[in-house]
Amino acid sequence: MEDLIRVLTPLPVLLPLLGAAGALLVGRHPRTQRVLSIVVLSGVLAVSVALLVLADDQGATSVSVGGWPVPLGIVLVVDRLSALMLVVANTVTLGVLVFAVGQGMADGEETDTPLSIFHPTYLVLVAGVSNAFLAGDLFNLYVGFEVLLAASYVLLTLGGTAGRIRAGITYVVVSLMSSLVFLAAIALVYAATGTVNMAQLAVRLGELPAGTQLLLQSMLLVAFGIKAAVFPLSAWLPDSYPTAPAPVTAVFAGLLTKVGVYAIIRTNTLLFPDGALDDVLLWAALATMVIGILGAVAQTDIKRMLSFTLVSHIGYMVFGIALGTTAGLAGAVFYVVHHIAIQTTLFLATGLVERRGGTTNTEKLGGLAKASPLLAILFFVPAMNLAGIPPLSGFIGKLGLIEAGVALGGAGPYVLVGGAVLTSLLTLVAVARVWGRAFWRPRAVDTAEEDLEAIRPAAGTSATTAQLQENRLPRLMVAATAGFVVVTLALTVFGGVLYGVADRAAVDLVDRTPYLESVFGLQVIR
Amino acid sequence: MGLLLLAHLVAAVLAPVLVRWWGRSAYYALALVPAAGFGWLLAQLSTVLDGGTVDERTTWIPALDLDVTLRLDVLALSVAALVTGVGALVFVYCARYFEPGDEGLGRFAGVLMAFAGSMLGLVVADDMLLLYVFWELTTVFSFLLIGGSGAKVAGRRAAQQALVVTTAGGLAMLVGLVMVGQASGSYLLSEVVANPGSGPQVTVGILLVLAGAVTKSAMVPFHFWLPAAMEAPTPTSAYLHAAAMVKAGIYLVARLAPGFADTPGWRPVLIGLGLATMLLGGYRALRQYDLKLLLAFGTVSQLGFLMVLLGTGSREAAAAGVAMLLAHGLFKSTLFLCVGVVDHACGTRDLREISGLGRRLPVLAVTAGLAAASMAGLPPLLGFVGKEAAFTAFLDGGLESRTWALLTLLGLVLGSVLTVAYTARFLWGAFGSGGAVRRCAAGEPKPAHLHRPGPAFLAAPVLLAALGLLAGPFSSLLEPLVAPYADTLPLVAEEAEELKLWHGLQPALLLSLVTVLGGLALFTGRDAVARLQRRIAVDASADEGYWHTMRGLDRVAQTSTRSTQRGSLPTYLGVILTVLVLLPGSVLVLHAPWPDAVRPWDTPVQALVGVVVLGSAALAVRIRQRLSAVLVVGVTGYGVGVLFALQGAPDLALTQFLVETLTLVTFVLVLRKLPKDISERHRAKERTARGVIALAVGALMAGVGVVALGARTATPVSVDFPEQAYSFGGGENIVNVTLVDIRAWDTLLEISLLVVVATGVASLVFIRQRTGAVARATGDTRSARGRRAPRDRWLAASATLSPQRRSVILEVVTRVLFHTIVVLSVYLLFSGHNVPGGGFAGGLVAGLALVLRYLAGGRYELGEAAPVDPGKLLGSGLLLAGTTGIAGLLLGVDALQTTILERTVPVLGDVKLVTSLFFDMGVYLIVVGLVLDVLRSLGAQIDADDEHDEDPDPAEGQALATTAGGDR
């Protein structure tokens, strides 16, 4: 078993990197590239699942890469949390890749879009994300972040249209700023403790004066707060995500902010377990939830609306973290899993809406429910899930957080519970409006039909307009989106199993010893 | 029960398919599902009536106490029977209500079936959280049913309104349920009600739960959504908005009353709101012209009635409440179904346009008449029995306080008077011979084209009405259904009255008489009432209040978003830095332990360099010329390099210098395309604010640095590096061993980052294709100027440059240096493990050599110097580095673990080869690839675009505009 974990653990990073190398080398053969990417990511997913099974069975384990003894070299740590994140993240990356391939094939990618850019970059992104989850070393975590951010810069500006470049500048500069803060914080942490190994930091940071600890924690929190889009560090997100191509936005929205949330969870539980900043986090969570969702209510564009709900719901996770209890962390972990899946699904569904309706502006859209009942289902189910309608997974996560908040009691948690509920209601208002406008309301002038006439003047003879419109959605894209909807439903049906894992992960996080022992063995190193 | 629920789910999914196959008749088949439920309930009757329960339990999410715990007791059975029974009949009715070609039949069937299942689940759920699950599901399906196809704006608005209002209450209820559940240590209704617990958490929790109940059951002031929901097709109204969903709140109150009726606030809220709702609903019903709306307001009124009865929390009131609940379910769904028939027959539901239907459709008239009589509380119908019981309850007891009991009774009697009045209005309007206004001209008698309903269409309402009629005289048979639940509540009156039709000449009968006479009087004086209604329009404000709130929400949303989402990068950065100053800054000021002594520098030279760096940073802000600004920024970088050197880190210094140089070159390449000066458009105030933030951040970082360094007591891990690097890593150059071995994992990721960055630069410049052929000067390629490069000359392609761009000195220097530099770079690569150098530095040096070739010879020369696809270089480098990573795994050691091979090779002598060299070669390749990519895109491609600008040639078309955009 030991051996198996030793071999498996580095693979979620190594396989995509090798895949990226391969994709660059076969740049002139799109089909080979596609097959390669899908095979690689399937492999990564399989490895992740195996790691989760092993981690849930045996608890945390660590692997030193390069064979160096512990505080010298870099360790990768697989515990329940990181393994769970790996599985979810790589499910999403694989699914989105399939969607993107579907979109590419439908668009005749071979000639138009820079295939040789997308695949290698996407695979490197996956490596970065996986590494961020596995890193047992603060600097290595930073490197993971940098890799995924660099890849995201490229993906966000794919195609180089003016809008994307403008959004890209905001995104890149803000991300660089957060990286700068993070890097400075790492330097300070090293200055104060002489190590960047997280397990060793867990011991050494505790020996520092409380004020110094607080200082370092707050620096790291600001850095991760930007990445996770916690208000007031969140304004960059709705200005940058919506312009990217649908699959890119989907994977960004689903994954990238959650890596920041993961980092907050990790540092707050492992490195700074005293909860000294929990109150700050609590109010930040409230502001993130409420101001984020107000932003969503004010939008008329689906992608922008979803981006604001993304910010808003980060508040839920921060809420769970700020509670600091096992129940709160379990709720946060479950919500992270749920939210990764649901945001990705919704953005993909919105990609289909854009394809069908030609826009994502609800003021121009209309009649989609009638034109494409399948698309309507693919949007409605995850939209309700996002709004936390039971029994869907969004409800389960919300319930976990409410239960945790009520269990802790006190003014702060109760206010937060109220804020969470209000946010849930406003999310429903926002998605119900989109539904009403884009799906229910008949289209004033059926421009889609006119487009169709223009494209296929002779097609009207055999197929009805509705059928024709159905044809316009490429099958692979629809299948990928439908697959995601099924995944979100599975999160609901198997919510008990998943919540069990989240719960055990939270117990480990609060306990800390499983993590420390996995790195040091039984003796604790100073 | 679980199976039944599952059956509903399966049927809901299959419904659209069935409808596609069998058309509207599929509804008959679908009716079997709720009918089966009804049958199953009947089969459980004996168990339940004996005081037993039917329990089922499947775990779902044990961590949250959310399990599928189902429990059928007598109250659940009564309501479930109503839900399934009416449900089955509504499906039967649908099969004829819809026309064969109607659109959306399948969707409607599926949603209605899903609703039926959720409603059944709500009633049999024992886990409070599970009850909430079904509760919200009924809300969502109601939303879909009200909105229908979404074609009508009123339907969409009503659907959204109902959704928002009931969900708002539902969410309050969810929090309440959690509070109650945690306070009482169980989430099972049966256990919670048995051990209710007390204290503020329970009180607040219960009041929140009631918020859910009153919104769901359309109590004042949340009643407005229910009449608006009448946009839905009539079967929906009959089922959801009369018999089933709106009863959910009442049902929950009935469920909780045995445990919580004494909770502070319970009775005032429920009885107060109930009475207000009963009166207001009745009053509003009196002015309706649309038959459906009339019934809707009647429903609101009756729900208020039920809320009073079941919220009172005494045995006698509860018994009356359950009887009334059943009665209302029967008569109200009948009436709705009849209105549906009328609508079909006449094409309208406006009572001003209908007349004389009674004569033409006698069966329908009798059916509706029976149901209406039950609604008005006329003997011998079930409605009469319920109302008598209610009056008796409050006459003899009901509440501990007589005063409040009698006041409540007064309210109920008044409400019943209104009920009789609107019942009369309904019958008169639908079936009477004289419509009030007759706006519709006599020459357009709709009944002439009467669409006569068939027996199948009428079956459901007739059956329901007949049940209401039968249940009256035989109401004592209902007693075993009512009593077990009612007995869980305390008896306030002296003795419990049984349900029966004839109690003798009692005060209650007198009250019934009063209500009937009063109601008829109101009906007779309807013109006066209408005048009064016009003058006092109660209530219209509630609906307006909702829309007002929504508009307010929009305003708040827009204001808040406008102020936080400025769309301005400098603002965002300012906010981020301000947070940085405020959060760690305040910690620094308030809590930080400052070290006792601070050593500012090791040698004064460091201070000097520091001053230079600071000065050039400040200068960079002031300089307007882009190029100069970039150069000054470069000085800060070189300064840092000097600091590294002073610290005794030649490797770092070397790398820093190389990177800085390359960065400058890149900048210069890009700056060619930008305006010379940086435009200054910021006002003085903004500049000041930025200056303050910048200085504060700088001060913060310095302060934090002092504190963090002063806190160090532990030994840094790096003290072991020198020894370990040699013994384990096989190298004397610690930096290089760190990069390619100790922390090779970091390096592997960093080089993949380089790959991505190179790819990204290419992506922005070569919008369309990356893998294009390398532009070379030899062969067939001709320069834009038509000069052709001679094949045999070194640096031949410089001939393709225009003369004014050529520099003889540079060409000469390049000729001398290029190969030397390349050799040097290879030397750095191989020697790096022991002396300063390494793959990264080597790669950078090689890159600089390429820069030189490009600058001297132009873009074709670049193609000559490196006739390879940079993508291939990057790919091979990554493959090489990655393979050394995975090789370790394959060989049974850790990933990236190195091996030292020492051999004596004939010519070279003793050679010590550390496998990390292969890794370093990967690094080298990638760095070269990166530089090449940057030169090709930012250099050569922009050259090509420029030449293209000067000498337009459509055949070489590139996305020039987008490229320019890319550089902005």
TrEMBL record, chain A:
Residue ranges constituting the NADH:quinone oxidoreductase/Mrp antiporter transmembrane domain according to the UniProt record: 135-423
Superkingdom, taxonomy of origin: Bacteria
Recorded topology in the membrane: Multi-pass membrane protein
Residue ranges crossing the lipid bilayer per the database entry: 6-26, 35-55, 81-102, 114-135, 141-159, 171-194, 214-237, 244-265, 280-298, 305-326, 332-353, 374-393, 413-435, 476-502
GO molecular function: NADH dehydrogenase (ubiquinone) activity
Keyword Transmembrane: yes
Keywords: Cell membrane, Membrane, Transmembrane, Transmembrane helix
Gene Ontology CC annotation, any one: plasma membrane
Compartments it resides in: Cell membrane; Membrane
GO biological process entries: ATP synthesis coupled electron transport
The UniProt record lists the keyword Cell membrane: yes
Main location: membrane
InterPro entries: CPA3_Na-H_Antiporter_D, NADH_UbQ_OxRdtase, ND/Mrp_TM
Family note: Belongs to the CPA3 antiporters (TC 2.A.63) subunit D family.
PANTHER family hit by this protein: NA(+)_H(+) ANTIPORTER SUBUNIT D1 (PTHR42703:SF1), NADH DEHYDROGENASE (PTHR42703)
Protein name: Multisubunit sodium/proton antiporter, MrpD subunit (TC 2.A.63.1)
Source organism: Klenkia brasiliensis
TrEMBL record, chain B:
Chain spans, region Disordered: 944-968
Keyword Amino-acid biosynthesis: no
Localization, UniProt: Cell membrane; Membrane
NADH-Ubiquinone oxidoreductase (complex I) chain 5 N-terminal domain location: 61-108
GO molecular function terms attached to this record: antiporter activity
Domain Na+/H+ antiporter MnhB subunit-related protein: 809-932
Residue span, MrpA C-terminal/MbhE domain: 687-765
GO biological process, one term: monoatomic ion transport
This protein's record includes keyword Cell cycle: no
Membrane topology term: Multi-pass membrane protein
Domain NADH:quinone oxidoreductase/Mrp antiporter transmembrane: 125-398
Ranges of biased composition (kind: Acidic residues): 944-954
TM helices/strands, residue ranges: 74-93, 105-123, 129-150, 162-184, 204-226, 238-257, 269-286, 293-311, 317-342, 363-384, 404-428, 456-475, 508-525, 572-592, 604-621, 628-646, 652-671, 692-711, 748-767, 808-829, 835-852, 873-893, 913-932
Gene Ontology annotations for the cellular component aspect, listed alphabetically: plasma membrane
PANTHER family documented for this protein: NA(+)/H(+) ANTIPORTER SUBUNIT, NA(+)_H(+) ANTIPORTER SUBUNIT A
Name recorded for this polypeptide: Multisubunit sodium/proton antiporter, MrpA subunit (TC 2.A.63.1)/multisubunit sodium/proton antiporter, MrpB subunit (TC 2.A.63.1)
Species this chain originates from: Klenkia brasiliensis
